[in-house]
Specification:
The protein is an alpha/beta fold. Helices cover about 45% and strands about 15% of the residues. It folds into 3 domains: about 45 residues, Transferase, Pyrimidine Nucleoside Phosphorylase, Chain A, domain 3; about 250 residues, 3-Layer(aba) Sandwich (Pyrimidine Nucleoside Phosphorylase, Chain A, domain 2); about 90 residues, Alpha-Beta Complex (Aldehyde Oxidoreductase, domain 3). It is built from 17 helices and 13 strands. Strands 1-4-5-13 form a 4-stranded mixed β-sheet, with helices on both faces. The two termini are about 40 Å apart. The chain binds uracil (URA).
Length: about 425
């Protein structure tokens, strides 16, 4: 295979043959294709896209880079959810245990932080002792006994995505419909699900900035998923401001715990209930959305969802007290960003907030970077809320000042405070559209 020639072909707008795509993905996965050529190829795909035939071949090549699980011997309809990525999006950490507590098995393979967005794996690893590296045997047995397993790609589960995802993160090649679609579906189709709920984010904190782009991504994901014989529902949801009030790793686990105890932010609770109700309907344990919601609320009020998260944590080597007693890593130092004027918060650019968290150490600038589980930030004011001049709008939890100046600058850029009275009605709804 002449890799440089194939890169040129894609760069110049040609279509790659399925056999070439399979060979390229296989070579990158086994380490014979170096990062620099893979990065150039990704950039060519970023600019030129993939046609339907190429995308099919690319997704299947990533899917078959590892094992494809057959979970048919585990009773129940297996349902998962995946988000296309946002800021403050810790939904999976509350949602998966709630759905499992309601009787639907949830096998979940997640990703790490990508670009300005956080990753479920990095957040889970903020729980002391928690391992996201499960063997397939452990993944399978935990699903059968606990009803939910939360893990990352391994050498045997979608390894091509693990490598390509890390490379995209640091080469400016994230925001691409075919690369996102193949990344998500290679993981999801590998984990043996029967049905999938997708949370396609749109807005300043999403990879898809416009509704049109998000619709295209949602349609692509739904078409590939259904083509593979899965039941798929896609939600288009708002990511113009961060979800909830916390951005980071341990601090987002805290937000998930609050949601599981009924004390979380209203937007996080609403999205958890909406996605969860759909998962319960697809999983065959709720007749309709209203019944699904009622079950989800029941699992919050009874504490069953929180207990299930603690059970998952214990099963994966973590300390359940991290969940039940909120024993999570923290930093001793916080400083605040204050409002330069009085008014109402009119907008918060979520991508700037994500980049502020990254500057503090909550994400990676290079593939090799370690993530600091304890740093992050708290949004003390969200869109529509009033603020006085000099009052704090954001608390920055930093480690010895690392990244503090940049984070502060980004938060100052992110917040727009206006004279207008609160206009939350003018913002679009959290759930914008549902594709069933
Ligand atoms: N989530 C994924 O798993 N992959 C992407 O490329 C983006 C979001």
């Amino acid at each position: 295979m002449n890799v440089a020639e194939l890169i040129r072909q894609k760069r110049d707008g040609g279509a790659l043959a399925p056999d070439d795509i399979r060979a390229l993905i296989a070579a990158y996965t086994d380490g014979t294709l170096p990062d620099y050529q893979a990065a150039a190829l990704l950039m060519a795909v970023y600019f030129r896209g993939l046609d339907d035939r190429e995308l099919d071949a690319w997704t299947l090549a990533m899917l078959h880079s590892g094992d494809v699980l057959d979970l048919s011997e585990i009773p129940g309809i297996k349902v998962d959810k995946h988000s296309t990525g946002g800021v403050g999006d810790m939904i999976s950490i509350a949602l998966a245990p709630l759905v499992a507590a309601c009787g639907v098995p949830v096998p979940m393979i997640s990703g790490r932080g990508l670009g300005h967005t956080g990753g479920t794996l990095d957040k889970l690893e903020a729980i002391p002792g928690f391992s996201v590296n499960l063997t397939i045997e452990k993944f399978r047995s935990q699903l059968a006994t606990v009803g939910c397993a939360l893990c990352g790609q391994t050498e045997r589960l979608a390894p091509a995505d693990r490598k390509l995802y890390a490379l995209r993160d640091v080469t400016g090649t994230v925001e691409s419909v075919p690369l996102i679609a193949s990344s998500i579906l290679s993981k999801k189709l590998a984990e043996g699900i029967d049905a999938l709920v997708l949370d396609v984010k749109v807005g300043s904190g999403a990879f898809m900035k416009t509704l049109e782009q998000a619709r295209t991504l949602a349609k692509t994901l739904v078409a590939i998923g259904r083509g593979a014989g899965k039941r798929v529902t896609a939600f288009l949801t708002d990511m113009d401001q961060p979800l909830g009030r916390r951005v980071g790793n341990a601090i987002e686990v805290q937000e998930a715990i609050l949601t599981l105890t009924g004390m979380g932010s209203p937007d996080v609770r609403e999205l958890t209930l909406a996605l969860g109700a759909e998962m319960l309907v697809l999983g065959g344990v709720a007749a309709d959305e209203a019944a699904g919601r009622a079950k989800m609320i029941g699992a919050i009020e009874s504490g069953a969802g929180l207990a299930k998260l603690a059970e998952i944590v214990a099963a994966q080597g973590g300390d359940p007290r991290a969940i039940l007693e909120q024993k999570l890593p923290t930093v001793a130092t916080a400083s605040v960003v204050v409002a330069p004027r009085a008014g109402t918060v009119a907008a918060i650019k979520a991508d700037e907030v994500g980049l502020a968290a990254l500057a503090l150490g909550a994400g990676r600038l290079r593939k090799e970077d370690a993530v600091d589980p304890a740093v992050g930030l708290e949004l003390l004011r969200k869109v529509g809320e009033p603020v006085g001049r000099g009052e704090p709008v954001v608390a920055l939890h930093h480690r010895d000042g690392r990244g503090l100046d940049e984070a502060r600058r980004r938060i100052e850029r992110a917040y727009r405070i206006s004279d207008e009275p609160a206009a939350p009605k003018a913002t679009r709804p959290l759930v914008i559209e549902v594709m069933r």
